[in-house]
Amino acid sequence: MLAAVGALSLGACAARNDSGSGNNASSQSQAAAPQAAADAADPAGDGKAQCAPTSIAYAGTINGANAALGQNILYGVQLAVDQHNKANPGCQVKLEKFDTEGTPDKAPGIVTQIVNTPSIIGVVGLPFSGESKAAGNIFNSAGLVTVTPSATNPSLSQNGWKTFFRGLGNDNTQGPAAAKFITGELKASKVCVIQDDSEYGTGLAAATIQALGDKATCQDKVKTKQTEFSAVVNKVKSENPDVVFYSGYYQEAAPFAQQLGDAGVKAKFVGPDGVKDDEFVKSAGDAAANAYFTCPCVPADQFTKFSEAYKASSGKDPGTYSPEGYDLTTILLKGIDAGKKDRAGLLDWVKNYDGQGLTKHFKWDDKGELAKTTIWTYKVENGKIVRNTEIK
Amino acid sequence: MSITHDLSSLVLTQGGEWIKFDVDSFVQQFWNNTIEGLSYGSIYALVALGYTLVYGVLKLINFAHSEVFVYGCYATWFVFYGLGFRPGATPSLGVGELVLYLGLALIAAMAVSGGTAVVLERVAYRPLRKRGAPKLVFLITAIGASFVLQQILFIWRGGNPEQSIRLLRNEEQFQIFGGSVTNITIITVVASILLMVGADMFVNRTKFGRGIRAVAQDPDTATLMGVNKERVITLTFLIGGLLAGAAALFYMMKIPQGAAYQGGFILGIKAFTAAVLGGIGNLRGALLGGLVLGVVENYGQSLFGGEWRDVVAFVLLVLILMVRPTGILGESLGKARV
User: Fold this and answer.
1) What does the alpha-carbon distance between residue A226 and residue A248 come to, in Å, rounded to a whole number?
2) pLDDT surpassing 70 at residue A17
3) Which residues in chain A are closer than 8 Å to B256, comparing Cβ atoms?
4) In chain A, pLDDT over 70 holds for what percent of residues?
5) Helices first, then strands: H and E counts in chain A
6) CB count, 10 Å around CB of A40?
7) If interface means Cβ-Cβ distance under 8 Å, which residues of chain A face chain B?
8) How confident is the model at residue B17 (pLDDT cuts 50, 70, 90)?
């Protein structure tokens, strides 16, 4: 099965049809986006599913800090549920939305509310690592299955939680991949790694610094919600690195990148999946032109059917982790269609799931990690984030 | 290349690393950090004046003042947007155009912040005063008003910060001892000091200012002497709001991503700290407190690393309050000082 996935992504290299975003034909080194697998699970199913009315939930930031990252996922989840319900009149699944604001202090309260709502039998979320760490045990105690489309901190799967499943590669993959990209394709020999104080930022920075070895010549830390970075900027400027890697979220990355640019720092700016959003590009202004991203997310450029449906329902192009959110929701919906009607049944379904999705093949090990994951790099062209290369 | 000195084996941080004293970086970046610190500190100081004035007159810590500031940020953003500027690349404008547009933004931000402060006083605090509510109720109302103002922005504009629009690129103009002085730093520091001198003269030299000082000293006697207490209070909120509006423009010039519904929280806390540091109720204390706080924060960050930025600021506050419980310059607005 894995070989088949590999063959599919190789096959995609031959067909260079940039239907997803029109203005990127100029770039030379850009790798082709993977095609949607023909056997990718479809939330619509066969249209004959029968079930009692039941609910699944999205939990994550909707309006809090870094809201765009949560909204990308939410719209993907919403699309899958809508397609399912439209195709299956005999099986209506309700999507409940819970806003954790993305913070570790708010999430446990919201999650307690979710586990105490008996009608909810599966959850897509939580998107961020800090909140996942804070609330994961509540899900575990309640036996409520959670599939996360974006929390990448490696330690999350080491807690013995039976309900935690990660739909993408973790930062033990992203960190070394980022290092490989920075020193390989970007040819950097001096790298400044700046991290925020989140679970995600610190974990990813540690993995990246380790992989960079002695090429990580300077480091500093910033705080969530910080907007003024002059001391860090001055430090980076005196170091004169080739690349600045910012391990954190876009809300801080945007002003930081802009202030670096203003200070005359010419280094390329590389951010991880938490920075890869249009909000970063628009907010960093001139500085965004110099930015690259690493991300365990698969480019949606060739997922034409998905992209069109997504745009029709949300009014936007798919963002980071929209296809992942869609895939994971589809897995839960297929479980419900297959007759799972309680939390224990759906948990068992996800645990034993083995099937192809849009973004990748889904089959989890006993810790809730996927066997095979991919890391892509992205760059900014004409004010838009476009795919660059896959790091192998 | 910087050499990191591990001086102490006294404190172990959470991750098991030793606290590092990066003395080289501190020395190298001293002037850069000082200049940037003064620039940011003058924004703190402008906002701190609002806290200090209201405290001086009402003995109330107006926690909603940070939202008064944020409304100024949004006003600035809308002026830029209304003038036809959009997020993305920074336009290159002539000096005349720039002065005109920034002037418009300044007027709008000051008007919106001043208006917000006055409305806040009318709606939230005046009814309480009429009923003779205890002090604690004012404090809780202030926090509640802060949430209300935040949520209005949130419902209207959503959780994402407004995408950055800026008219002026932050560029180095000249150097002082190797520390670069940028155009925005010059504008911020010069304009802030002018505004603060203006506010100080207003309070100390004019008839209205005398009213403010009289109410601060003894509200009842001031009323008996023919001072219209309610009008003085409104005026105090208005001045605080106007200064916060000006601060909002300078802040948005420095950090164009600043128009976020929660964006005033940390800055508000810092400005409040600056006011306490200098001596709450003392106008010149707010100026001094703001500048000291801005500079010390940068020193601390450079010496210990970014995660210690706030720790250094608040440790400084604690140390100063231990030695001088009323702040560096003491409380003065309420003290007789003829």
Assistant:
1) 12
2) no
3) 255, 258, 283, 285
4) 93
5) 12, 14
6) 22
7) 61-65, 67-68, 194, 197, 218, 220-223, 225-228, 230-232, 234-235, 238-239, 251, 254-255, 258-259, 262-264, 279, 282-286, 383
8) low
Query: Nearest-5° angle of CA B317, CA A104, CA A336?
Result: 170
* Whole-angstrom distance, CA of residue B33 vs CA of residue A85: 58
- Which chain B residues have a beta carbon less than 8 Å from that of A218? 2
- A193/A256 Cα distance (integer angstroms): 13
Distance CA B228, CA A333 (A): 68
Q: How far apart are CA A101 and CA B24, in angstroms?
A: 40
pLDDT given at position B78? 96
pLDDT of residue A16: 37
- Amino acid identity of residue A380, one-letter, is V
Please state, as a whole number, how many other Cβ atoms lie within 10 Å of the Cβ of residue A219.
18
Contact assignment for A283 to B154 by CB distance below 8 Å: no
Q: N- to C-terminal Cα distance for chain B?
A: 57
Handedness of CA B293, B294, B298, B301 (dihedral sign): positive
In angstroms, rounded to a whole number, what is the distance separating the alpha carbons of residues B327 and B321?
6
ipTM metric: 0.81
CA distances from A322 to A306, B131, B133, B195 (A): 10, 54, 52, 49
pLDDT tens figures, A47-75: 888 888 899 999 999 987 788 899 999 99
User: d(Cα B67, Cα B61) in Å, to the nearest integer?
Assistant: 13
Question: What 3-state DSSP class applies to B218?
Answer: coil
CA dist., res. A218 & res. A240, Å (int)? 10
C-alpha pair distances (Å), A307 with each of A301, A302, A333, A379, B325 = 8, 8, 20, 20, 62
pTM: 0.84
Q: What is the Rg, in whole angstroms, of the alpha carbon atoms belonging to chain A? A: 20
**In the predicted model, what is the mean pLDDT of chain A?**
88
What band does A14 get if pLDDT is binned at 50, 70 and 90? very low
Q: Give the three-state DSSP class for A315.
A: coil
Return d(Cα A101, Cα B4) in angstroms, integer: 38
> Where do the H-state alpha helices sit in chain B?
23-28, 30-58, 65-82, 95-120, 126-130, 135-157, 183-205, 207-217, 219-224, 229-254, 264-278, 283-304, 309-323
CA angle (A176, A379, A382) in 5-degree steps: 175
Q: Report the chain A residue with the minimal C-alpha distance to residue B170.
A: A262
Rounded Cα gap, residues A46 and A43, in angstroms: 9
Q: What mean pLDDT do residues A30-34 have?
A: 83
Rounded Cα distance between A122 and A114, Å, is 10
Residue partners of A171: CB distance under 8 A and separation at least 6: A152, A153, A154, A200, A203, A204, A207, A272
Biggest distance spanned by C-alpha atoms of chain B: 69
A354-368, B5-19, B109-123: least confidently modelled range: B5-19
Nearest to A234 among B33, B254, B265 (CB): B33
- Give A142-166 pLDDT, tens digit per residue: 999 999 999 999 999 999 999 999 9
Q: Do B36 and A255 lie within an 8 Å CB cutoff?
A: no
Q: Which of A260, A251, A202 is nearest to A229 (CA)?
A: A260
